[in-house]
Specification:
23% of the residues are buried. The protein contains seven helices and nine strands. The two termini are 47 Å apart. Pfam families: Tim44 (PF04280).
């Protein structure tokens, strides 16, 4: 039995609403989710795989760093050369056909004794000469304009600093040792794809302790909606994203309650320097109680009041002489 059109649409709308409701209840994050922030010149490049995050991390979706585009992500010099399309010149196209036709017609007319082109008298010859002159003038303008055409945009060295990231190497082969709870790769021992604008650096125990501390403190400040504390631990760009999410929570009458954050496993995916800034991307696997509560009653509106595991890549930046700050988060 076929349902009438309107009831069928109503059933479909109800099914979709139920599906979205189930997703909303099942998915509770300490933040809106997604990958956002900046990783310097490596913002839109894939971070190397680690044992903590063996799968490729989600690409950055929101960033104030301009995306150089696919053409700027290669070290192949040939890819940066302007690509000129093979197209016939004016003399090989319609203009050449017209000019050759006029000349051949004029010569045949002269051989037959009918004047240049076979037209009557001097007037016909002048008309054909004017036509030939017009065609020659157009051809000269065409060639002159082609010589003055600018090179293709983006064909220069604009993206020469970028590098093509190879697929994640074998974790056992790239691990150089362990500092504290972190596995640290042998920086500088591998890839010829390292960008010319950056150089790999080493980290010490103080750096790794700072990353672990920031993991818990940033989550705590976010849950407490402490904007002043967040500004001390994250970059201005990250403050803007997190503040926007906190504002949306307040508008919807909810707050994100994150507690009992505990680091389970951590790896350093890469660490590098660009100019006067140091960057480090760490893979974190941690557990936390993460629920969304009603602001008025405190009752849970989404999530489960039990520890759940999360794996993310956190990138930190440190201007010379300053402290590390969180600059990007990527889902893994």
């Amino acid at each position: 039995m076929r349902l009438p059109r309107l009831p069928r649409l109503a059933v479909l709308a109800a099914a979709l609403s139920m599906a979205f409701a189930m997703v909303a209840v099942d998915h509770a994050d300490a933040r809106r989710g997604g990958s956002f922030g900046s990783r310097g010149t490596r913002t839109f490049q894939q971070a190397p795989a680690t044992r903590t995050a063996p799968q490729p991390a989600a690409p950055v979706e929101r960033s104030m760093t301009p995306n150089p585009g696919p053409g700027a992500r290669t070290n192949n010099p040939a890819a940066a050369q302007p690509q000129t399309a093979a197209r016939p010149g004016f003399m090989n196209g319609f203009g050449g056909t017209m000019l050759r036709g006029l000349l051949i017609g004029g010569l045949i007319g002269m051989l037959l004794g009918h004047g240049f082109g076979g037209m009557a008298g001097m007037l016909g010859m002048l008309v054909q000469i004017l036509l030939i002159g017009l065609v020659v003038m157009l051809a000269l303008r065409f060639f002159r304009s082609r010589q003055q055409q600018p090179t293709l945009a983006g064909a220069g060295p604009a993206g020469s600093y970028a590098r093509e990231v190879e697929p994640g190497p074998d974790v056992q082969r790239r691990e150089g040792g362990t500092i504290g709870g972190f596995r640290v790769p042998n920086f500088g021992s591998g890839s010829a794809a390292t960008a010319a604008a950056s150089e790999d650096i080493s980290l010490d125990q103080r750096d790794l302790d700072t990353f672990e501390r920031l993991l818990g403190e940033v989550q705590g400040a976010y849950a407490a909606e402490d904007h002043a504390r967040l500004r001390q631990m994250v970059t201005p760009e990250m403050v803007s994203y997190l503040s926007e999410e906190l504002g949306d929570n307040a508008k919807n009458g909810v707050r994100n309650d994150v507690s009992d954050v505990r680091l389970l496993q951590a790896d350093i995916a890469e660490a590098w320097r660009e100019g006067d800034r140091d960057y480090a991307t760490a893979a974190f696997q941690y557990e936390a109680r993460d629920v969304m509560r009603d602001r008025a009653s405190g009752s849970i509106v989404s999530g489960e009041d039990r520890p759940t595991e999360t794996t993310e890549l956190w990138t930190f930046v440190r201007p010379r002489g300053e402290d590390w700050k969180l600059s990007a988060i990527q889902e893994a």
